Amino acid sequence: MTINFNQLVNFRKHLHSIPELSDNEKITSRSIREFLSNCNPTELLSGVGGYGIIATWDSGHSGKEIIFRSELDALPIEELNTFQYRSQYRNVSHKCGHDGHSAILCGVAQYLKIHSPLKGKIRLLFQSSEEIGMGAKAILEDKKFSDIKPDFIFALHNLPGYKLNEIIVKDDLFTASVNSLIIDLYGKESHAAEPEQGNNPALAVSEILRECISKNNNKPERDDMMIVTPVYAELGEKAYGISPGKATVHFTLRSWNDDILRSFEDQIEKISKSIADKHGLKIELKYLQTFYASNNNTEAVDIVRIAGSNSGFTVTEKKYPFKWGEDFGLFTSRFKGCMFGLGAGENIPALHNPDYDFPDELIETGVKIFTNIINQLTIYV
Q1: Long-range CB contacts (within 8 A, 24+) of 230-239
Q2: Mean pLDDT on 321-349
């Protein structure tokens, strides 16, 4: 396997220095496209579902069609690291490791340049807008993807808190079903000295927060796990002579599957509407950033287990799913797939921390797992 890991590390650091938010990954996409063009893919599609890229190595013979997926987008977080390749932009940085995930797929592209498949097709999918739960949907709805029907789709995610290079797998559910809810409340403004002349939604906000949070069942070992997290709230303006007439509350809601989440959403809606009605307020509800539960196919997980063992890594079985959402879930609702974890080290900053940085040692680990999967499915077509 002739892969230039020094080049991949440098490329990862380049991506880290030029982070772009969801649906804005123009320069990131262009950089990856230029890298891939030197790896002689049979086909190189860009602008898929936004700034997404699909690179294909087609043997021209019947066999398995496999997709490996990574993400392009960064987060609206100010980086605290001071190393040379730190983010060039204020309040935007790669704090989830998508720069590293993309570098891993670029390493697979280097491998495929030398070891083109003898049967079937291998596709590398670089997805935009993962962090806001819109990228997978955009790709699946893109005409460029309409004729693509993979036998398997695989993805990985680095996991701080686990031993470096540990492979974390789980059958069935891997990540939670997540939705974000915006609750807007409308009353009537008045003079702050005469709040009785208006309708201030402050009490309703406090009641909605209290009642909704009371529904938390943050117990991963239970099938009916449900979590509601307040992420943002706003009431009025910094105008001390005005009793406000508008407020907004934002929640994330999560559970282990999409059906339970729908039921949970109904509960939160009923609570919020009842409180708004009690206080004579108009209410509007809106959902966004929907993440479907990632359900791993057992056959696909077994392939990852074998790849981890063949590559000499420790394979750890996860007892409970992860509570965070992943846009990969929409792919696993359509195709047989598996998301697995790569241990990033037990004592490094967590994902989405401002001082997090992807461990470059994982690039070689990820490439080894993915290329072993390719070899398995090339042999057993």
Answers
A1: 231/180, 233/205, 233/209, 235/201, 235/202, 235/205, 236/200
A2: 97
What is the C-alpha to C-alpha distance for residues 157 and 178, in angstroms, rounded to an integer? 17
pLDDT of residue 380: 40
Residue 2 pLDDT: 76
Cα–Cα distance, 132 to 81 (Å, whole number): 24
Question: 284, 288, 185, 285: which is closest to 235 by C-alpha?
Answer: 185
- Please provide the distance, in angstroms rounded to a whole number, between the alpha carbons at the two ends of the chain: 21
Under the banding of pLDDT at 50, 70 and 90, the label for residue 378 is: confident
Q: What does the block give as tokens for 116?
A: 């083109």
What does the block give as tokens for 335?
């195709």
Ranges of beta strands (E only) in the chain are 43-48, 52-58, 65-71, 121-127, 152-159, 167-169, 172-175, 177-186, 190-191, 226-235, 242-243, 246-255, 282-291, 294-296, 315-317, 337-343
**What pLDDT is attached to residue 229?**
97
Cα-Cα-Cα-Cα torsion 60, 61, 62, 67, nearest 10 degrees, comes to -50
Three-state secondary structure call for residue 286: strand
State residue 351 phi and psi, 5-degree precision: -55, 140
Spatial separation of the C-alpha atoms in residues 74 and 19, rounded to whole Å = 6
H or E, element range at 26: helix 26-37
Please state, in angstroms and rounded to a whole number, the distance separating the CA atoms of residues 55 and 38: 11
Stretch 4-28: mean pLDDT, rounded?
Answer: 98
Which of these, 40, 29, 14, 17, lies nearest to 126 by C-alpha position?
29
pLDDT in tens, 23-78: 999 999 999 999 999 999 999 999 999 999 999 999 999 999 999 999 999 999 99
pTM of the model: 0.93
Name residue 93's amino acid: S
Q: What is the DSSP string of 192-255?
A: TT-GGGSB-THHHHHHHHHHHHTT-B--TTSTT-EEEEEEEEEES-S-TTEE--EEEEEEEEEE
| Location of structure tokens 């039921």 | 263
Percent of the chain at pLDDT above 70? 99
Q: 229: which strand partners?
A: 252
